[in-house]
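Troubleshooting entry. Yesterday's outputs looked truncated, so today I'm pasting the complete records for two proteins to confirm everything comes through intact. If either block looks cut off, that's the bug. Protein one:
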Amino acid sequence: MNTFLLPDLGEGLTEAEIVRWLVKVGDVVVVDTPVAEVETAKSIVELPSPYAGVIEELHGEPGTTIPVGKPLITVADPAGEAYREEERAGSGNVLVGYGTSEIPGAGRRRRPRSAVSGNSLPPAAKNVPQSDGPAQRRVPLVISPLVRRLARDAEVDLRELAGSGPDGLIVRRDVELAIAHRVQPEHAPAASQTAVQPAPRTGLPELRRTPMSGFRKAVVATLTRSRAEIPEATTWVDVDATALMDLRASLRSAIDAGPGLLALMARFVVAGLLKYPELNGYVDTEREELVQYDGVNLGLAAQTDRGLVVPAVANAHTMTTRGLDVEIRRLTESARDGKLTQQELTSGTFTLNNYGSFGVDGSAAIINHPQVAILGVGRIIDRPWVVDGELAIRKLTQLSLVFDHRVCDGGTAAAFLRFVADAFENPASVFADL
């Protein structure tokens, strides 16, 4: 009997939450078979089994948080009784001169799972009965992390739902319907619901309490440390981005969509950081030194179902605009799927935040510690603007730079911001120097 303990996942992580099991009790596994999908403070990862044999026990339900070093699964030794019973059942494979035993009443051997795709449905999710003590409990068929999160936040037991999607898949509307029925059950008046005691300070009832996930705890720790340690300052400028939009349109063709707008912005930001490296570094408080990096790993703030993440384009200073575009799209897709690596999530040297995608004009962002600056870009909209003494309708946006005042004074920060703003307003001339 072997017990697989939750391994050290690096980066100081001390726990992980079980998102879903990729195996069930009774499954035969080989070494490196993925057995569980877990969510850490950094990303969602698959854990492979270090043992071969039969799954004897799964230590925890989906949604359970397990500390590092605690049991995750128990696997019976291949030489153990459970595995020998599987062998006696007959595999259908024989050696020359030998055959499988015919045992009356014996079932077929379960097929070993040599690999499980992260995008495939695990056997435990096929709506088959699974032992859970005295009762048989159904493991739900659900794929979307958004659906799981919605159910978890609202304390909806997915095992009690019947999916309305293809093959019984539980989809978002099933969870929302369960929430609606719980708030106002069918055939029951609102007055019949249990009264909720009001909170002492406000006198209002609490709608719900949601435990912080490991990911949210990590975000809280980073932002709190940033506010506590960094003497930050903010500067901003309104920018005429008409020429930038025209450049983006000119790069499109019938057969090539061309680099996206964010890739163009990223290219100008990288050029600005190479010119003003004070903003591309960190403060070594122990040695009382200001450190500047020789190169840029450009972090890009991205909103996902799990919250805000900032994956980094490694060695962005070596890439063309088209290369940046390819990498940005790859990181964005990985962020949505929860498949970013710890290296991608923690290696940034500067952050570009396109909060304009949320339809807002400006923001006083919080620096992503231990970085020393973050540049935000607001939405690009039509506004009146004076051009050559004449009033015109132009494509305007706002750039805001939050920087650590320990690494530079306002002059350097303003010079960097003005460089990027000039690139937005006259991109053709800047490209000539890149």
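Protein two, checking that the full record survives here as well:
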Amino acid sequence: MSIAQKELVIIRSKSLSVIVPTYNESKNIVGILDSLRKHLPIGTDTEIIVVDDDSPDGTGNIVEEYAKNSKKENTQSVQIIHRKTERGLSSAILTGIKYAKGDAVVVMDGDFSHPPQTIPKMIEELQKSECDIVVASRYVNGGSVKGWPFRRKIISKGATKIARHGLGIKIKDPMSGFFAFKRNIINNIKFDAIGYKILLEILVKARGVKVKEIPYEFINRKEGSSKLDTSIAIDYVKSLWKLYRYGKTIREKEKRVSVRFLSKAGRFYTVGASGLLVNYLVSFLFGVVLSNLWYIYATMIGIVFSMTSNFILNKVWTFEDRDFNLKKTLRQYGLFLGFSGIGAIFQIFMIYILVETRHMNYSIALFVAVVIASVGNFILNKRWTFQEKVWS
């Protein structure tokens, strides 16, 4: 980013564009537009842009009629962009940004999960904090999620952990779909627009930007249906891989051994976190959804799946070993399972010693044992399973 781009951009009080991508939001969109017009400053330089992906329920036509009426009332400008052939949330947002005139841009969903009354706070922070991006966060102090089932919370938390640690992102809610930014920070970014969270791509590619998180309460939609499905999950994985590869070209220029070591350690522990998610989902699948297996059997299957996925991800991603020669891979797999087992036994033994002989509080003993066992697990696998020097 050039020096000129890093300079604070003064946002005119009425130079604001709000992008609302929609697909089958006919039951929500009028209410959203009414609420936006109520909470946004009145003026011709404050605009609302709805980008509709040819919704079968007529969302685009509803907005078109609404836009005509708002023009007569001389309030905020409401525009509708009909996309007949393109699909996808990220690309819809980019289309909206292309047509936006504001120096500041707000991105939000059209299903009332993102409260419009939060936008003035976001814009205020964008101005007074001299930051480049303001993220409405579910996971900072004061933020929350309302109406999600436990399974959805687990999936969201897992995806967030993977994004934060796998891509080296510092903020607590990089998966938020509700954020504001100064338009100039994306001037030189080439977007892939894969998946449904374009904020991730901005955070990875707009290097050096200042980010501020403010809390808000995410409320699960009451009308319409969630867009989260298998294709969304696949797109998310593709997006993560693309962004990881992008970041890799920058990491490869890093000469400091300590940074490279910590980078691999971070990826190793991120894979471990993803293993917990795999364990839960597979155990739930076999114990509840597909069959009525005894919960112990279902859990054992979940453990096997998670350890296998951990091995594959660490081989390909953490240690970047793509040689899948059968003999070599089976040897590595055996070592990985062995070291994982040793780590588990060591953890249990250390907890017992600390609690029984040192009379340490269990929660503290658990933390100490997990840290030591996980560090040992990483170093053993780095040195012996994947044949790397420890300090490299």
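Both blocks look complete. Sanity check on protein two: The longest strand covers residues 16-22.
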